[in-house]
Amino acid sequence: MDANKRRLAERLFQGKKYGMGLMFMLPWIIGFSLFIIIPVSWSIYMTFHKVKISAGGFQYQWLGMRNYRDAFLKDNDFAFQMITYFYEMLLMVPIIVIFALLISLMLNQRFPGRFIYRALFFLPVIFATGQVLSELFSQGAGDVPFLSQYNLEPLIQEYVGAQFAESIMSLLSRIVIILWYSGVQILIFIAGFQTISPTIYEAVRIDGASPWDSFWKITLPATVPFISLNVLYTIIDLFTFPLNPVLEHIEKNRYAPETGYGYANALAWIYFAFIFLLIAVVLYLFNRSLKKRSVRL
Questions:
Q1: pLDDT digits (tens, 9 = 90+) for 102-116
Q2: Residue 112: half-sphere exposure toward Cβ, Cα within 13 Å
Q3: Res. 128: pLDDT tops 70
Q4: Rounded to whole angstroms, how far apart are CA atoms 281 and 231?
Q5: Are 60 and 50 in contact (CB under 8 A)?
Q6: Residues 263, 61 contacting (CB under 8 angstroms)
Q7: Mean pLDDT throughout 223-230?
Q8: Distance (Å, whole) CA 133 – CA 82
Q9: Residue 188: which pLDDT band, with cuts at 50, 70 and 90?
Q10: Among candidate residues 186, 197, 194, 221, the one with its CA nearest the CA of residue 102
Q11: Is 101 exposed, middle or buried, given 0-12, 13-18 or 19+ CB atoms closer than 10 A?
Q12: What span, in angstroms and rounded, lies between the C-alpha atoms of 31 and 227?
């Protein structure tokens, strides 16, 4: 009996402990269920239907996997735009990450007014929201004048081919605005530099190492986890870029009478699956490189 009472008391104690934790989590669970699970489930449900909007509300016509098949077999624009933007992203991600790394190295130095320059590089992240960014780009604020002045497009087509020239020209035309999106990456790199002990730099300086050697032997290896974090952040940020042609195509199909909400949701979920697979591959590659580095150490 004593053993049974002891087990019962332990179960009551565990129940109270878990119950207290669930009580604190209850507001988040309710909010997550109402604002995440229900809309996501409804979105998945609509991908299997043709959705029409009438005076009485939404009307659903069961299509099965037809929306997904049409996205791959009939809608050539969607696949073309997604592949084209993927090419652009392969160019944008290294440019933004390398630019953020170089700027953060400079902003990590001690000089008067350092906090002002840090704020200046982060301000575009605050002000350049989706609508503001679209308006600035429509007014030509992101154009680079030398592209038209020196007629670089034929030269680029000659060296990389017409297939990749369009992506490169599109990237160069947005280079100013794209670099505005490096503020968060700069802050992450600066935070990563703070994790490196100053005594390590003092020790290698005493041994006669130059700043160039310190960067390649100490700074860069120590910031590899932060580089991977910035790569992932930049990929996600670019795939939700306001000027993303894939998102524009999904938006256009959402209001088209021949396609509607069901087909647009199917395109959105295909796009999400593509991003998810890409992020999984990037995580796998970075985890593999970090494991090899830890084994060598």
A1: 888 888 888 787 778
A2: 0
A3: no
A4: 12
A5: yes
A6: no
A7: 86
A8: 21
A9: confident
A10: 186
A11: buried
A12: 33
